[in-house]
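Many introductory courses stop at the sequence. We go one step further.
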Amino acid sequence: MMANVDWWMIGEATIDTLLMTGFSLLFTVLIGLPVGVLLFLTSPGQMMSHRGIYQSTAFIVNVLRSVPFLILLIVMIPMSRLLVGTALGVQGSIPPLVASAAPFFARLVENVLRELDPGVSEACRSMGATSRQTVLWALLPEATTGILAAVVVTAITLVGYSAMSGVIGGGGLGDLAVRYGYQRYQGDVMAVTVVILVIMVQVFQVLGDRWVARLNRK
C-alpha cells in the first residue's frame, strides 16, 4: 500500500512546511498587526481619522488580498530572488506567503479592534492619553484574545498556502505532493501528504482554541 512512500523524505518535507508556516506567520504578524492598527486608527470616526491614509492603505491591502495566491507566487519570483536570493525552497516561498497573508491578517486585526467597546478609547482620551498610549495600554491588551484567534486562523491559512507553493518548487509537503504524487502518479505519497496536512491543521486549531479559551478565563 505504501510502497512509494519514503518516510525520511516525508519527515523532511513536514519540517520544511512547519518552517515555512512558522517564519511566514512571524513576519505576517510583524507586518500585519501595525497595518491593521493603522487601518483602524485612520478609519472614519476614529482618533486619528485620515481619509487619504486610510483609503491608500486599504487599497493596497485589498489589491494584495484579491490576487490569487498561485498568481502571486509567480509574480513575486523576481522579488523573492531579490529579497532572499532564491525563489525556490523554504526561503523562496516566504516572501509570497507573507505578501498574501499579511493583508488578510491586517483586516482581521482591524475587525477585532472595531468590535471593542468604544468607551475604552473615550476613557483614555478623557485621561489625556496619547494615541500611542491608547493603542499600547488599552486597545491591544483588550483585543489580545481576538488577535490571538486571528493568528490561529492565519496560521491555518498559511499551511494551505505553503502546500500550494509546491507548484513552483517551494518545498515542503506541497512540493512532494506535486513532484511525486501528481507528476509520477504515486497516489500513496499524495495520500500521506494530505493526511499530514489535515493533522497539522487540526493540531493548530485545537491548540489555538485552547490558548484562546485560557486567555478568556484569565
